[in-house]
Amino acid sequence: MYTCSLERMTEKIKSFSRFGDTGHGGITRYALSPEDIRARNEFIRRMKAIGAIIEIDDVANVYATLPGTDPSAKRIVMGSHVDSVKNGGNYDGILGVLAAMEVLETVVEQNIDHVHPLTAMIWTNEEGSLYPPAMMASGIVCYDFLPEDVRRNFRYDDMMASNNVLNREDTFGKALDASGFKGDRANRLSPDAYSCMFELHIEQGPILEDAGNHVGVVDCVLGMFNCRLRFYGQTVHAGTFPMPKRQDALFAASQALCSLHEKIDALGYEDLVYTTGEIACHPNVHTCVPDEVDFSIDVRHERADVLEKVLGIVADCADKTWAGCTCRVETMWNRNTVYWDKTLVRYLKEAAEETGVKHQILHSGAGHDAQFVSYMLPTAMVFVQSKDGLSHCEREYSSPQHCTSGATVLLNAVLKADAKRNM
Ligand SMILES: [Zn+2]
């Protein structure tokens, strides 16, 4: 068993938090922004210094590879993203890159034998904060392997044309050309050159902390669906129209939302999560009764039959009128639970047991690049405890000890894959 360095990990977290520092605890580091480029350059500088070979693909994903003893063996890759949301924290994404660097640094420092080349990787534009959608580069690279209804959202030309959300003139394609990080398509992650992938990430929830565990071995990414409920009424004057005659679309929507909560909760699934996070109200004027209101509902659970039951409840909203308004339900998208490779999950679990790291098996409720990679290669994820479960905010925090424990688990799991996988 090998152990990663707390001191080195602490230094890396601190150093990389400079790139995009907001001055009040967090970072804003949009994909391909000057801050993102600085983080990439620092990654490259440090990886070159330990003898890694740097490659960049055509969508700016960066790969740093330490050769193994067998030049014909396929690579084992570890990676995550360095971009963030606006006013994000110093851990989401970047920690997976720092942990991958730490693994390679430990391998070099402790002169650890390995047969397969080991690669630390940066995925471009995971958050999609400036250029939607999220998980853009993994969507492009894994395109041929993704289910049709997923991959239609990641066509190369559409991605290049993705508009900057702050300045509608710039596109992802233009930013890519200007970044100096548009490399060779031949360098893309592929099953020809790579045998498997690990991604370390912060948990982004409170389960590990509540259980007193430092690291989570992730077994799947939860299945989910996303619906839009639209309510149609009639705009009238707020002062002149009697209440009983109104068709108030916002009142209708709020009744439907409360009814959904009641009915979904009555199913009694403790680990079911659902969220209405977006609402649009028309005309959104304080003297007008709203005529059109729509809201989102995002529902996540491991079991397809549970999701189907909830979808039935949501769809039933369209069968009746609410406060005199009609309702239409649209399913925007849904996906099944994605299970990680069982062998890699076992390596992570064994690595956590053997290194004495307090851990548990966990599901992921959020999407990650590894999820798309899992359609192409055996893939698994490891989570590090998030303080108070916070993420996508400046207060996001994971202790250096927990981060280092995560890297240690990753390192030993990678070495198990190196030793045992017949690749
Ligand atoms: Zn992330």
UniProtKB/TrEMBL annotation:
Its cofactor is Zn(2+). It holds the Pfam family M20_dimer. GO terms for molecular function: hydrolase activity, acting on carbon-nitrogen (but not peptide) bonds, in linear amidines; metal ion binding. Binds 2 Zn(2+) ions per subunit. It comes from the Bacteria. NCBIfam families: hydantase, PRK09290.1-5. Belongs to the peptidase M20 family. This is Zn-dependent hydrolase. It comes from Desulfoplanes formicivorans.
